[in-house]
Amino acid sequence: MANPAGSNKLDRMTSVMRLNRRAVRILGQNPSSFTLQGTNTYLIMPPCDWNFEDRTTLLPAMLVDTGDAREDYVPYLEQVLRGNLSMLDEGNGPVRLALTDIILTHWHHDHVGGVPFVLRMLDKLREEAAPHVHVPVPRVHKFPEPRTDASFFERVRYVPPGAYVPAPQKQGLESVMWPLHDQATVAVVDPENARLVSTLRALYTPGHAADHVMFLLEEDQILLTGDNVLGRGSTVFEDLILYMHSLQRGLDVLSDRAATPLGVVGTPMSGMAGENVLFPGHGEVIPKGKDTLRRYIRHRLDREEQLVALFACRPGQKQDVMQAIAYPAKFVARLRCHQAARYAWTLRQFVSALYENYSLTMYPAVARVLLLHLQKLAASLHELKAAPFPTREAVPSMEWHALGPLVRCMQLPKYQYTDMPWPDVPRSEDEWRQVWDLPWQLVAT
């Protein structure tokens, strides 16, 4: 989900867009302040020239994410499966693409809510197909995570068993989900030319969600980022430490890969040497993937530095606060040298200072982000959780953090669930009211 700046208008995106010879993007028809123009779903197929009349077989394809529970998304997907790239070509022509796999980046409703609608539409296509045309029953893939799977299974509760290929050794609702694991691959091969292949490699990258997975389209060196990176603004996350590990993992993976071939819609026709394209979960194609991942990591570090810098300002002293946000390194240096007074701040004051121009509807989301940053700053670097996958580097942080915890919450809320010396993330509105005005102080020496 996005964390945009509220009132800015978004550029219009076409509902169906062929991005290159392997990928078609279909918008989920669910625009909002959190989903930008809507959820991006991607149909990945072997490279083709879209001339289906010359084929004797269906071209297999994989669908990454299904949008929200919206009826108006499915007609667009259906038209693409019939070989049409525009709803202007509406009609019930023959099926041209065989949807073999549905692959989900994570459990959030705007990515999995459309699963029952897609499966129902595929049932209809099978019933309508000519006797000699085999429209396959798809497999549904998701990274297993006990904390999120119950929500997914509830969404597919009424899907009939014949609408999907059941996962081996699974019973009941659990048979809907083929469990993904880190580095697993799902591929489609053109039955008329075995050399034409498209492969998605799963990269477990939690943080935005506990079950979040990015996918590398190996033949084109394109990273499908899910909600870890968006085409505009930043994203929210459940766990900042894991999220930063995951951003670094995406950067590491792309750094070991060749550049994306030229010719992706929305990218320059030249000047892309050494870069990799990102297909985000929301928003436009991102031409400079490695640069964007570095920028996302840098944005988190900049926010961290701004939080620390604000402790040199009296809350409400607008001119100093604006300067600390604009030039945080200068204020952090003064704090380190004990050349500035240190003031207590509350989460409410941090939100008001850093997100003054944001819509009030965004405040709950940004408050959560800032609380996770404060938790990170309240821990020593060696206390931060390790990544659940091999990493080249520790979680990035500002240099001063290496000496120990930088901040402390001077009073814990009544609801506290753990023995951590900082407030746990609230789970209700009442708990958020307890956290808003707790005082935080800079404790670094």
UniProtKB/TrEMBL annotation:
Species, as recorded: Malassezia caprae
Annotated signal sequence range: none
Domain Metallo-beta-lactamase, residue spans: 53-282
Family in the record: Belongs to the metallo-beta-lactamase superfamily.
Keyword presence, Metal-binding: yes
Gene Ontology MF annotations: hydrolase activity; metal ion binding
Superkingdom field: Eukaryota
Keyword list, A-Z: Hydrolase, Metal-binding, Zinc
One biological process term in Gene Ontology: secondary metabolite biosynthetic process
InterPro entries in alphabetical order: LACTB2-like_MBL-fold, Metallo-B-lactamas, RibonucZ/Hydroxyglut_hydro, Sec-metab_biosynth-thioest, WH-like_DNA-bd_sf
Cited Pfam families: Lactamase_B
Name of this protein: Metallo-beta-lactamase domain-containing protein
